[in-house]
Amino acid sequence: MVVQATPFPHDPCRHPRLSPxxxxxxxxxxxxxxxxxxxxxxxxxxxxxxxNFTVTFLGTGAGxxxxxxxxxxxxxxxxxxxxxxxxxxxxTQRQLSMTKNLGVKDIVKIFVTHxxxxxVVGLLGIILQKEMSVKHDAGSLTTSSGSGSxxxxxxxxxYGPKGIYDYVVMxxxxxxxRINHLHLVIYELVGGSDLRRGGGGHGGxxxxxxxxxxxxxxYQPTFGRRSASNNNIEQRTIEMGKDGTWTIQKLxxxxxxxxxxxxxxxxxxxxxxxxxxxxxxxxxxxxxxECAPCGKIDVEKAKGLGVAPGPKYRSLKNGYxxxxxxxxxxxxxGQVMVDGNGxxxxxxxxxxxxxxxxxxxxxxxxxxxxxxxxxxRGADFLVYEATLEENSHAVTKQRGHxxxxxxxxxxxxxxxxxxxxxHISGRNDSQESINxxxxxxxxxxxxxxxxxxxxxxxxxxxxxxxxxxxxTKGTQPDQGHIHLV
Length: 485
What we know:
Layout: E1 22-24, E2 54-59, E3 74-79, E4 82-86, H1 92-97, E5 107-111, H2 117-120, H3 123-145, E6 154-160, H4 164-174, E7 182-190, H5 225-230, E8 233-239, E9 245-249, H6 256-259, E10 268-278, E11 281-290, E12 296-297, H7 299-304, H8 311-317, E13 322-323, E14 330-331, H9 333-336, E15 337-338, E16 347-348, E17 352-355, E18 358-362, H10 370-376, E19 381-385, H11 396-399, H12 404-414, E20 418-422, H13 431-445, E21 450-453, E22 458-461, E23 465-466, H14 469-472
Helix pairs in contact: 12-13
């Protein structure tokens, strides 16, 4: 039975094997049931879901008009106690307050795909709530300790195209707001087809060229520099690399804080690249990739080598060699690391070695250039828009958006495990329309990916992955070609 009820407007997919990994991340006193098999809290597979890598769709609607079933764009990626937010359309702050396990307090990074209103209007509310949260924490620390230890500045990082700094500062100043406790760092991704520096905006064939600008590093904000300084807002830039991508955070860079179990968000690599949307609107996609996960330690082996259970085990799990407790020898991870079956070298018997998971989210686009496609290859979870109807292929470039067929084809080209389509038009909110979107995407995808249409508050848990997934995917499309383990 399908219950058509807000905020759960439809059955998001037709793949029973995805069922144990889908749920609704919303606090609701009378949450309605959905299609049998889509939600299965009692499934035996539920115990295998790792809640440290979950995606929650906060807003899945296309901009332009109000939609009671879908909020403007926003997606959250939860990583073991911290949250990455992708876009913040109008009402994102309220959407966050309605979820079960997400809050503004835990957001450490916000990634803005482009400067259209339906992707950025909700930023100010999130920033100010984060400021209040940090202020409260600082006050609590000061009260409890009797000293100024509570004055430590918590940090929120925002990444986006040229203009995001001016936009945030203008909003803070014009609303007479103050940022005194939160350390707000805004990174602008400079270079590429950045057209906001002046000139070249909307004319001719220059609209989609992606050349790095020699003047990008000399850009200065045009609004409120002094006021921004008083408000504890810092501006930084990230230059485009020679490969046409922006490296926000390098993969597999372990720090001592990681070894002690803190700063989980530092254990991932983050990159960005451009997609083509509309003239003069530089638009990005972002890819987040985990470091290779830790294995387990054979305690008896470790004891035999002179390392008793303790803090050194965490170092070994994170790839660091340690000295034996008597200080006479060095013990390497390879000497003591095993999997749950007792196999050495961190290999799971019959599955291969565990690898880090990869999440990719692309902004509004009518075309995805090669650098972005290269970043997305092998993504475990790909989020891409399906705004336009299938009869709109002739105007995709003019409108700057994609169809479900285009989304399915992209997922096939990059060999994504799961494709989640978002930025859905209000014309496609019926179950029949949703089914059509999935059908068109599946036809173009040729059984390469599992496909779903996202709706607000849909939560997807991405399970652990193994290195042999990409080699076998697609060979048996009727027998579960996506290895959800």
